[in-house]
Amino acid sequence: MRGQMHIEVKNVFRKFGTKSAVDNVSLSIAPGQRLGILGPNGSGKTTLIQMILGFLKTSSGEILIDGAPVWPNRFLTRRRIGALIEIPLLYPSLSARDNLLFFARFSGADTAKVDHLLETVHLDPAEKKAFSTFSLGMKQRLGIALALLNNPELLIFDEPTNGLDPEGIVQVRDIIKSLNALGKSVILCSHLLPEVEHICDTVAILQNGKVLAERKVKDLSRTGNSFRIVVGNAKVAENIFTKSNLAFVADENPDAYLLTLPAGKQPADVLKSLIGEGLEVEEFIRLNQGLESFFLQLMESQREKA
What is the C-alpha end-to-end distance of the chain, expressed in Å? Predict the structure, then answer.
């Protein structure tokens, strides 16, 4: 049923000669999910996207959309997907509206929706400025409108904010999030980790064609063992920390400390113990590891294994 697209990538390989660009990748993308695909250059991100779109055939394994294989049905399933892979190649002398009208007629899309799409991406339907004079941010936003022409269920963006200024990044980010709020699934490939963290609910990290890790973004905020604690009796706090075998440093706030819990120690147990020792705890907050820290640690661990 339209609006409920489910994608399964099952043990997919893609070889170019003897080199595996994608090496035994398995992923599942549920309806409405926002998946970020991360990895250094040459990690296999673009090749994977091209196979999901049906532009490349898998060497082995399969990609299914709603249980049907992509490759034999690629022309039908592609109508359900909108993609912005790089700066769109549109007619330089035409306005945003005329460009969209041309491609709507060419693809059989509803031309009556063109003005609404332009408003969705914050472009003025009445603006007569030629595409060749657009800023990079305007070109990217028009590219998003183009990807939306057929009311797709899945949107794929490959580095959509690359080269944009801060204002352009925020505009594109907000547009993508608003589209997901309408029920559309999103796959985002980007090297800008903060953007992926802002937009996506799940991340898959690739290197050398393999999936190194797949995580829920919200779960990354519950990893790590560093905490900030604010106390009401700072004069005895350091003695209590020392007695409890906790590593600590004083924060800028004279009543706050940064604690590092020993491996295996549960935060709730430590907090209960500190209170039992007489510490007056006012705040106890985990310092989020976040996506950037997780990604860098994962890349470092891979270098150590090499």
Answer: 46
pLDDT of residue 163: 81
Q: What is the pLDDT of residues 87-114, one digit of tens each?
A: 788 999 999 999 999 999 998 899 999 9
Q: What are phi and psi of 189, to 5 degrees?
A: -100, 125
All structural domains of the chain, each given as residue ranges with its CATH number in brackets, are 7-217 (3.40.50.300), 226-286 (3.30.70)
Cα separation, 287 vs 193, in Å, equals 18
> Tell me: the pLDDT tens digits for 184-221?
999 999 878 888 888 999 999 999 999 999 999 887 76
Give Cα 301 to chain centroid, integer Å: 22
Amino acid identity for residue 20 in this structure? S
Q: Report the C-alpha gap between 75 and 63 in whole angstroms.
A: 14
Instruction: List own/partner pairs for 106-114 with CB under 8 A and 24 or more apart.
Output: 107/149, 107/150, 109/149, 109/150, 113/149, 113/151
If DSSP codes are grouped into helix, strand and coil, which group holds residue 223? Answer: coil
